[in-house]
Amino acid sequence: MTVTGGVAIVGSGLVKRFARDKKESITALDGVSFEARHGELTALVGPDGAGKTTLLRLVAGLMRTDEGTLRVLDLDAATQPQEIQNRISYMPQRFGLYEDLSVQENLDLYADLHGVSVEQRQERYPRLMEMTALAPFRERLAGKLSGGMKQKLGLACTLVRSPDLLLLDEPTVGVDPLSRRELWEIVSSLVENEGLSVVVSTSYMDEAERCAHVVVLHEGKVLADGVPSSISSRARGHSFIATSTQNESARALQARLIDREDVIDAVPQGGRVRAVLRAESAQSIPEATFEPAEPTLEDGLMLLLRQQTNAKPAAGAAIELADKPAPDREQVVIETHDVVRKFGDFTAVNRTSFEVRRGEVFGLLGPNGAGKTTTFRMLCGLLPATSGTLLVAGADLRTARAEARQNIGYVAQKFSLYGDITVRENLDFFAGAYGLRGARANERIDWAMDNFELSNRAGAATGKLPGGFQRRLAMAAALLHEPQIVFLDEPTSGADPLARREFWRRISSLADHGTTIVVTTHFMEEAEYCDRIMIQDAGTMLAIGTPDEVRQQAADESHPVATMEEAFIAIVEKSRDQVRAKDAA
Amino acid sequence: MNATLHRILILIRKELIAVLKDPRSRIVLVLPIVLQSLLFGYAATFDLDKVAYALLDADRSGASSDFMARLDGSGVFHRVMNLNSASEIGDAISRKRALLVVHIPSDFERRILSGQGATVQAITDGRNSNTGGTAAAYVSAAVERFNADWRQSHDGLRSPLTIETRAWYNANLETRWNMIPSLIAALSMLQVLMLTALSVAREREQGTFDQLLVTPLRPTEIMVGKAVPSILIGLVQSSIILLLALFWFRIPFQGSLATLYLGLILFMSAAVGIGLALSAFSATMQQAMLYTFVLLMPMMLLSGLTSAISNMPTAMQYITLANPLRYAIEMVQRIYLEGAGVTLLFNDMWPLVVIASITLPTAVWLFRHRLV
Amino acid sequence: MSGAAVQAPLSWRRLKALVTKETRQLVRDKSNLMVGLFLPVVLILIFGYGLSFDVKNAPVAIVTEDTSPAAQDVVAGFYLSPYFSAIPLTSMQTARELMLKREVDAIVYLQSDFSRQLAAGHATVQVLVHGVDANRARVLQAFAQGAIGQWAVKRAAAGQSGSAPPITLQTRLWFNEANNSTHFLVPGLIVLIMTLNGALLTSLVMAREWERGTLESLFVTPVNTNEIIIAKLVPYFVVGLAGLTMCLLAGKFLFHVPIRGSLLLIIFISMVYLLVSLSLGLLISAATKNQFLASQIALVVSFLPALMLSGFIFDLNSVPAVVRGISRVLPPTYYVEALQTLFLAGDVSGLLIKDCAVLVTAAVVLIALTRRNTRKVLG
After folding, report:
1. Which of A574, C40, C77, C269 sits a CA distance of 20 to 30 A from A173?
2. Does the beta carbon of C344 lie under 8 angstroms from any beta carbon of chain B?
3. Coiled coil where (chain A) (predicted)?
4. Local structure of residue B27 (DSSP, 8 states)
5. What share of chain B is helix, strand, coil (3-state, %, to 5)?
6. Same domain, residue pair B200 and B95
7. Touching check for C13 and chain A: CB below 8 Å?
C-alpha cells in the first residue's frame, strides 16, 4: 500500500505538440507543471481543448513529452512506461470495450491482464456489479449496451483491481445521476479506505468539488491550482440567486441575464437563476431581485476564465431567427398514446403517453437504459413501435410520406455527420437533402455559419474537428430547413460548461420563436431550462410536468428536495423500491 | 419528381466528394487497377516463349544434330544442359533446372535412314501440367515440321495431307489478348463491389445512416444515390484499363465504344445491386469487406477468366449462370476482339438486366427492413 | 528506445486471457468464419471440380463439303476423340455463324474437291480455331493435328503410305502422368487458402483495434507487445491449420492427388508459410491502422502475388525479367515450388532446403518488423 501524503505525480514544464498538417502544429500542453499527491483525489478541469486528455495520456505512458520531465510513482514516464503501466489503471474517455465480448468476458479479460486473483474477484465483482447495475446484463454483448451502460462497464473494467494510481478521463460522460453518485461513492471509498491516488478529468464541477485538489487547465496552461475552495472563493461576493419580477420563466430570465456584459454567468436553478456578476452588487440589472449566494466551484471557474482569458459563456449564442407570426402555443405537435416497444422479451418502452405543445422545450430524463433513446428513435420514425400510436406534426414518421420528415430536425447522441468531407460540404448536403436549393440554400447555410460560428473552419475535414465544434455543426445541420420540431439526444454530453451555456442559449432563442424542442440530458440542472420534463425508468413513465411540479412530486413531508438532481434520484429510487417490493411479494 | 431528382443528385455529389476527396482513397481507386493490369498483362500468360530444356543425345549423329538445330533455331527452346546419361534426367527435372528433357536414342539416325522411323522422347515437368503440356506440344510441332521436310528432301514425297491452321480474332494466340479485355470487366467489378458494400456499411457503423433516414430522402432515392457514384467510378476504372489495353499493350479494338459502355453500364448495375444487397447483411465495415471477398473469389474463378466455362462440370456451369461477371467477360471480349454488335450480344446482355432487376429492388427492400 | 527494448517476460495468464479474447472475437463474427472456413470449402470444390485446363468435349464443327468415304475417314478421329464433341455440317456458312456465336471452338474444313486432291497425292485440311482463349486454342490445334494424324498412322499401318514417319514423338509428363490439372491446382489451392487466411483476416485485426479505440485501454495494463502479437497470431494460425487439413483431406480422398513427399514436411513448411502470411497481415494492419486501407494493401501485396506471381497457374519462365525478379523475392513463390514438389515429385532435398530457408527467413523478418511497428504509444 502506498503512503498517503507523498507525491504520486510530478510534472514540470510539460510541453506536447501535435502536427495538424505538414506546416502547422498545435501545442496541446504549453509548459504545464503540476503535482498529484498520494491518497488524494486530484481533478483536472477546464474547457474543451485545455489539454486534459493529453496530460492524462502522458501520465499513462501512452505518449512522450516534447519538453519537460514527468515522474509517475517515482518512475520516469519517458523511459519506464511499462513499469508505470504495470502499476496504474487508466480509463480513457472512450473506453475501448470489446463490443463482441459479453459484459462478464470484458471484465474477466481485464482482471486476467491485471493478474487479479480468484479470491480478489469474488470480493470485487459483486461490488462492481452493484455499482454499475450491470448484474442483469452479464451475458449481454458489450456492443448491445446503451451508451451510459458502456461507460459504466468501462469503469468497472478499470476498477477490477486496486492500482497504485487511478487515472479517469471524464468517467461520467453520459452516465446518469444515480450511477454517477454510485460511482463517486466507490472512488471515494477507495481513496478513504485504501489510500488510492486518483487523477480525474471532468467537466462536472460538482465532481471536481469533491476532490482534494483541483488543477484548472486552459489552452495547455495551468490557470489555477489548489483546493476547490481556493477557486470557488474567488467568486465570493459575486454569486447571487436572481428572481424575476416579471413573471417570466427561469429560462427567459437566464437568457436575459447571460446576454448582458455585466453578467459573467447565469444558469437556472430551482425555478430561479444562479448568476455570477462582474460587480459585487446587482443594482444595474432591472426587473429582477438578487440575493447573495454561497459561491460554487463552477462560479469560481467561470469568473477565472472570464478574468484570465476573457471567455464569456454563450457570447453571441443567441441565434437570429426570422420573425414569424406568434405561434399557437396551445397546438399539440407531438402526441403519443400507449406506445410500447419490445425487443424480444425485453420491454424497452412500456405504455407511454404524452403530448408536447408547440414552442415547448420538453426534456426526457431517465437513468441509462431507461428507454429514452428508444422513445426518441420511435418519434423520429427510425424504429417502429410494437403497439400504440405516435403522431409527430400530425403524422407517423414511420409510415408517412417522405415530405413529413421535412418538419423535423434530428441530432443524434453520437456525432453523425460525414467525417470525411468538409463542414461546408456537410451543410450543402443536408440543405440539399431537405430540398433547399439555389439562393435559398446559400442563405440558410450562411445563416448557419454565422449563428453557429462555423465560418472559420468551413473548409476543414469535419472528422478532425474538436468535439465542441462538431456538436455545433450537427445542430446547425438539423436546423437548416427550419423544422417545426427538433429532437436532440444528449446534446450536451461531454460538453464543457461554456459550451453547455452556449447550447441552451440557442435553444432558448429557438423556443421563443415557436420551435418545439425535445431533448434528453443527464445534467439535471439542465432540466431547469425545460418547460416540461418527463422521467422514465425501465421503460415506464414515472413523472411528467414542469420542473416545479416534478420537484414537488418528489418531495415528501420528511425531506424536501431542492435540486432537480435530488428530485430525480428520489423519484427513480422510489419507483425501483416499489418494483422490488412487488417482485418480492 | 423534380424534388426526387434534386435529392438524388445531392446524394451523388456527396458520395463522390467523400470518395474522391481523400488522396489515399484516390490512390486506392487508381493504383491497384493499373498495377494489376500490368501484372496480369505480363505475368498471366500461358504462352511459353522460353522453354529451358536439357538434351540427352545418345546418337550424336548428323540426323540428330539436324533435328536439334530445328529446336534451337525455333527461338523458343533454350538448351540449358547437355546430359550424358539417362540417369541424369531425373535430377534435371525434379530440381527444376529444365522444364523439358529431349532424349534422342542411340539408334536414331540408323532407324530413320532405314525407314523404320525413330522415337524421340520428350519428358516434361508435370508439376504444372499446363506448362508441361504446352512445352510438349511445341516439341510435337517441331517434330511435324522435321518429318515433312525430311520426307520431301529424302523421299521426294509430299505428305499426303497438309493441316492448315488459323486462329480467328487472335492470330498469334497471345493469352494477353483475351486476358486484358477481360480485366476491363473483372478488375473494376472487384472495386465497385467493395466500394458499394462499404459505403452503406460505413454509414451504418458511423451512425450517419440514421441521419440520412430522418431526412426526406426515400430508401429508393438513397439506393440510387449510392448506386450511381459506384457505377461512375467503375466506368472510370474500366476506362483506365481500356486505355492501357489500347495504348500500352496495343491490342487492337474491333468493336464500338458505345456498345462497350452500354454493356459495362448494364454490368455495373448488376454488380452494384449485389454490393448493396451485401451491405444490408453487414453491420460493420469489416463484415462488408469480408463478405464481399467471400463472394468475389468464386465469382472470379467461375467467370471463365482463367479457365473456360465449357470445361466445367454441368452443375458448376449452371451456377455460373447467376454470375454477372461471366456474361460481362464474354461480352467485353466479343466487343473488343470480335467487334460484335448489340444483336450478337443479346444473350450476354439480357441476363445482366435480369440480375440487376433482381438485386437492386432486393437491396431497397433490405434497406427498409433492416432499420431495427 | 530503451524503454521498448526491455521486455518483460511473457505471462501465461495474460497470454491465455488475450488468446481467449481473440478467439471469441474471431468465432463471434460470422464474416471471419466465412473467410476462414467456408471460403476454403467453396474454393476446394471450385478448384477440384470446376477449374480445369484440360480440354474435353470441345464443340467442333466438322464441315465436309465432300461426302466421299475418304473424306469421312480423315475426320473420323474427331468423332471418336474424348477431346471433341464433333458437330457434322455441310455448309461453311453455318459453321462460321456458329463460331461467331461462339457455339463452336473450332472448324475443321474439308473442301468439296478434297478426295480428288487426295487421290492426286496431296490434300489440305483447314483447322480454324477461335483464338480468343489463346491457351485453349493452342491445345485444340494440337489435338486436331493429333486426330488427323491418326488417319496417317492408320494409313501407314495399312501399307498405303510409303513409310512410317521418320520421327515419332513420345511425350511423358513426369510427376503427372495422367495429365490431370487438378494435381497441380490442389497444391496451389493450399497456397491460396493459407494466404487468404493469413493476410486478409489478420490485416483487419490490428487496424480494427486502432479504429475502435480499444488499444488505449489495453496498453495501460501490464500487457507487453509480444503478448499482443502472439495472441493475435494464435487463433488465426489454428484457423489456417484447419484450412490446411481440409485441403489435404480433400486432395487425398476427393481428388486423389498423390503425396509423393513427406507429409510431415508439407505440414511443417505450411506452418512456416502461415506464419509468414499472418505476420505480413499484422504488419500491414499495424502500419496502416485503417481497415479499408489494410485490406486493400493486403490484397495487392499478398493475395494477388500468391495467385499471379507464384508460378501456381502461370509459368514464371515466360514472364518478363522484371516480373520474374519480383516473384523471386516473394515468399509464395517458394511455397508453391515446395508444395508442388512435395506433392508430385517427392523429397527433392536441394530444392526444399532452399525453399524452407527462404520462408523461415521471411517469417523471422516479418515478425520482427511487426514487433517494431506495434509500440504501446498513441499518435
Report:
1. A574
2. yes
3. none
4. H
5. 70, 10, 20
6. no
7. yes
Q: SS3 for B166?
A: strand
Tell me which residue in A402, A412, A428 faces B218 most closely, judged by beta carbons.
Answer: A402
| CB-CB under 8 Å, C28 with A85 | no
Judge if B343 and B198 occupy the same domain.
yes
In total, the C-beta contacts within 8 angstroms joining chain B to chain C are 339
Residue B283 to residues A102, A283, A373, C30, C93, Cα–Cα distance (Å): 18, 60, 20, 11, 57
Closest CA to B306 of C181, C243, C45: C181
CATH tag, A332-579:
3.40.50.300
- Are B207 and B63 in the same domain? no
Please list every residue in chain A whose beta carbon sits closer than 8 Å to the beta carbon of residue B218: 402
Contact of C320 with C271, CB cutoff 8 Å: no
Cβ atoms within 10 Å of C348's Cβ, excluding its own: 21
| For testing contact with chain B, the best of A416, A434, A471, A481 (most B CBs within 10 A) | A416
Q: Per-residue pLDDT tens for A329-357?
A: 888 999 999 999 998 888 899 999 999 99
CATH architecture of the domain covering A231-309: 2-Layer Sandwich (3.30)
Asked if A257 and A266 count as a contact pair (C-beta separation under 8 A), the reply is: yes
Q: Are residues B252 and B316 in the same domain?
A: yes
Per-residue pLDDT of chain C (379 residues; tens, 9 = 90+): 333 444 567 888 899 999 999 999 988 888 888 888 888 888 888 888 877 777 778 888 999 888 888 888 888 888 888 888 888 888 888 888 888 777 888 898 888 888 888 887 778 888 888 877 777 787 788 888 878 877 776 776 665 545 566 676 777 766 666 667 777 778 888 898 888 887 888 888 888 888 888 888 888 888 888 899 999 999 999 999 999 999 899 888 888 888 888 999 999 999 999 999 999 999 999 888 888 788 888 888 888 788 778 877 777 777 778 888 888 888 998 998 899 888 888 888 878 899 999 999 999 999 999 988 888 777 6
Contacts of residue B123 in chain C, CB cutoff 8 Å?
Answer: 171-172, 174
Are A114 and C11 an interchain contact pair (Cβ–Cβ within 8 Å)?
no
C223 vs A contacts (CB less than 8 Å):
113
* Residue labelled with grid coordinates 419507483: A575
Q: Which of A99, A114, A158 sits opposite C222 (nearest CB)?
A: A114
CB-CB under 8 Å, B211 with A432? no
d(CA C102, CA C115): 30
User: B3 in contact with A at a CB cutoff of 8 Å?
Assistant: yes
B22 CB within 8 Å of a chain A CB: yes
- In single-letter form, the type of residue at position A518 comes to V
**Same domain, yes or no: B240 and B304:** yes
Per CB-CB distance under 8 Å, the chain C contacts of B34 are none
Q: Where are the domains of chain A?
A: 7-226, 231-309, 332-579
* Superfamily designation of domain A7-226: P-loop containing nucleotide triphosphate hydrolases (3.40.50.300)
Q: Is B206 among the domain residues?
A: yes
Tell me the domains of chain C and their CATH numbers: 2-51+181-373 (no CATH), 58-157 (3.40.1710.10)
Cβ contact C220–A88 (<8 Å): yes
> B133 is in which domain, residue-wise?
51-155
Q: Is residue B161 part of a domain?
A: no
